[in-house]
Specification:
Number of domains: 2
Shape: globular
Structural class: alpha/beta
Strand order of the largest sheet: 7-17-18-19-16-20
Helix content: 25-40%
Radius of gyration: 23 Å
Pfam family, one: Amino_oxidase
Protein name: FAD-dependent oxidoreductase
InterPro entries: Amino_oxidase, FAD/NAD-bd_sf, Flavin_amine_oxidase, Flavin_monoamine_oxidase
Cofactor: FAD
Keywords: Oxidoreductase
CATH topology of the largest domain: FAD/NAD(P)-binding domain
Largest sheet: 6 strands, mixed
Distance between the termini: 18 Å
Bound molecules: flavin-adenine dinucleotide
Strand content: 15-25%
CATH class of the largest domain: Alpha Beta
C-alpha cells in the first residue's frame, strides 16, 4: 500500500473511532497487524507531540486525559477576553535552535521577546538599587556562584543551601546580609529550578543544556502551540488513568469509566502524579524507575496575575525584582505592559514559600502581593480590577510545577524514568528529559523521543 493511501485510511479509521468506537481501543482497527494501536496517557506537550508524530506515521492513537482540557502544565486562561494569560509555561526559553521556535514559526505564532536584563531591582528598604546597591548585589551573586562551583567539585553532594551557608559562614551573617543572600538564592536558583535551596543538589541542580537567544512569550498564549499539536488527534477528556496492566500481550488501562486496551502505551504523567502513586502499575514498576520517581524532586512555581486599572510601575521594564524582607516572598514580577500593552503584573512565588502560600485564600494572597507592591510603589498602587492565581502543588493532575535534581538524585535517574518496559510501555514528560527537564521544549522533545523509540521497537 502506498504511504499516502495508508495515511488516508488511517485518518478514516481514526474519524470512525471518534464517532462510533465507544471507548475501547481493544477493537483494533483494520491495519492493526501493520501498526500497533497506541494509548497515550496525558495531553500535555509530551503526550501531544508523541500523538502527533505517531498519528502522522499512520498509527492508531488515542490520548487519555484526566482533565477537561488539554495542555497540562501549559494552560492559557481565557478569563480576560482581551488578555490571554499563561497559568503554566509562558516562555520559549532560548529561541536559537529551540524546536518550539521552529514549531511557532511554522504556524506564524505571534511571539514577543522579554529581556531579563531589562529589570529594576528594589533593595531591602524598598528603593531602586543605586550603584552601590547594584555592586553589592553583583558581589553576592558572584559569591554564591563561586561557592556552588566549588561545591560541584567536592564529594559528597549536599544541598545548595548547605553548600552556600557552610562556605559563607551562614551563622555569622547579619540579618541584612541574609536578606541579600536569600534574594540571590530565590531569584537566581529557586525561581528557575522550583526546588528549595535546601532540597536542590549542589552537584546537579543546574545540569542540562539551555538554548541560546532571547526568551519569548506567545502573544496569544501557549495554547497556540497546544491547539496546533492537538488538531486531528483523538483525545478523550475526563479519562483519568487509574491502573496500567502490562503483563499480557496487550496493555490495559483502566479509568473510572472505561477500560482501554492497546498494543503499546506512552505514559506522560507528571513526576508529581507518579510520586503520589495515583496510578497503579501491574506488574509494579522496576526498582530503578521507582528509585528515580522517589529520588527526583518535584518543585513549585506559582503565578499570581494582578490586573490594574492603570499602570503605576515603570512602563518599559520587563522585570521587577525586590530584595524581600521575608525569604522567598514576591521577589520577582513581570510586567505585561511591554509585551501585551496591558496594565497587568505577574508575581511569582516558588519552592517552599510558593508551596506554603497555596494554603492561603485568594484574598490573602492578593493582599500579600499588594503589600509588597505598596512597599515598592507607595500610594500610587491601585486596587486590582482582577486577579488569577495558580496552585500547582495542590493540582491533582500535576502535584507540582516541574521536576528538579534533588540531593541524592543523579541525572541517570532521568534515563531510568525514560526507560521503556519490554518495548510495551514507554515514558515521556519533562522529567524524563536529562538535558531540558523542567521546560516546555524538554516535554515536547521527550514526546518525540518516546514516539521514535516506540516506532523503532515495532
Ligand atoms: C507555573 C509554571 C511556569 C512554567 N514556565 C515555563 C516556561 O516559561 N517555559 C518553559 O519552557 N517551561 C515552563 N514550565 C514547565 C512546562 O510547563 C512543563 O515542563 C511542561 O508543560 C510539561 O509538559 P508534560 O507534557 O511533560 O506534562 P503535563 O503538561 O503535565 O502533561 C501531563 C498530562 O497528564 C495529565 N494527567 C495527569 N494524571 C493523569 C491520569 N491519571 N490520567 C490521564 N491523564 C493524566 C495531566 O492533566 C496533563 O495534561 C512551567 C511550568 C509551570 C507549572
Amino acid at each position: 500500500m502506498k504511504r499516502r493511501e495508508l495515511l488516508r485510511l488511517s485518518q478514516m479509521v481514526l474519524a470512525g473511532s471518534v464517532l462510533s468506537l465507544g471507548s475501547n481501543l481493544g477493537t483494533h482497527n483494520s491495519y492493526a497487524s501493520q501498526k500497533p494501536a497506541v494509548l497515550i496517557l496525558g495531553a500535555g506537550l509530551a503526550g501531544l507531540a508523541a500523538a502527533k508524530k505517531l498519528t502522522q506515521a499512520g498509527y492508531s492513537v488515542q490520548v487519555l486525559e484526566a482533565r477537561d482540557r488539554i495542555g497540562g502544565r501549559t494552560w492559557t486562561s481565557q478569563t480576560w477576553a482581551d488578555a490571554p494569560v499563561d497559568m503554566g509555561a509562558s516562555w520559549i526559553h532560548g529561541l536559537d535552535g529551540n524546536p518550539l521556535t521552529t514549531l511557532a514559526q511554522s504556524i506564524s505564532a505571534d511571539l514577543v521577546t522579554t529581556d531579563s536584563e531589562n529589570a529594576w531591582v528594589y533593595g531591602p528598604a524598598g528603593d531602586v538599587l543605586d550603584e552601590a546597591g547594584e555592586s553589592q548585589l553583583e558581589e553576592w551573586i558572584e559569591r554564591v556562584e563561586k561557592v556552588l562551583r566549588q561545591g560541584q567539585n567536592r564529594d559528597p553532594d549536599q544541598s545548595v543551601h548547605g553548600t552556600v551557608l557552610a562556605a559563607l559562614n551562614g551563622s555569622t551573617l547579619s540579618p541584612q546580609e541574609q536578606q541579600w543572600l536569600y534574594f540571590v538564592l530565590t531569584s537566581t536558583i529557586e525561581h528557575q529550578y522550583a526546588g528549595s535551596a535546601e532540597e536542590l543538589s549542589t552537584h546537579w541542580y543546574d545540569d542540562g543544556e539551555a538554548y541560546d537567544g532571547s526568551d519569548a512569550l506567545f502573544v496569544q498564549g501557549y495554547r497556540t502551540i497546544v491547539e496546533h499539536l492537538a488538531a486531528g488527534l483523538t483525545i478523550r477528556l475526563g479519562e483519568e488513568a487509574k491502573a496500567v496492566r502490562w503483563a499480557g500481550s496487550e496493555v490495559v488501562v483502566s479509568t473510572p469509566q472505561n477500560s482501554y486496551s492497546a498494543d503499546k502505551v506512552i505514559v506522560t504523567l507528571p513526576l508529581g502524579v507518579l510520586k503520589a502513586n495515583q496510578v497503579t502499575f501491574e506488574p509494579e514498576l522496576p526498582e530503578s524507575k521507582r528509585r528515580a520517581i522517589q529520588g527526583l524532586g518535584m518543585g513549585v512555581l506559582n503565578k499570581c496575575y494582578l490586573r490594574f486599572p492603570e499602570v503605576f510601575w515603570p512602563e518599559t521594564v520587563d522585570w521587577i525584582e525586590q530584595v524581600s524582607p521575608q525569604r522567598g516572598s514576591w521577589t520577582s514580577w513581570v510586567s505585561l505592559v511591554p509585551s501585551l500593552g496591558l496594565p497587568i503584573l505577574l508575581g511569582f512565588n516558588a519552592a517552599a514559600y510558593g508551596r506554603a502560600l497555596e494554603a492561603q485564600t485568594d484574598r490573602e494572597i492578593v493582599d500579600s502581593a499588594l503589600q509588597t507592591l505598596t512597599r515598592l510603589f507607595g500610594e500610587t498602587v491601585r486596587d486590582p480590577v482582577g486577579y488569577q492565581i495558580t496552585r500547582w502543588f495542590a493540582d491533582p493532575f500535576a502535584r507540582g510545577s516541574y521536576s528538579f535534581n534533588a540531593v541524592g538524585s543523579t541525572p541517570q535517574m532521568r534515563d531510568d524514568l525514560a526507560e521503556n518496559l519490554n518495548g510495551k510501555v514507554f515514558f515521556a514528560g519533562e522529567a524524563t528529559d536529562r538535558q531540558a527537564f523542567g521546560t516546555a521544549h524538554g516535554a515536547y522533545l521527550s514526546g518525540l523521543r518516546a514516539a521514535q523509540e516506540m516506532m523503532q521497537s515495532t
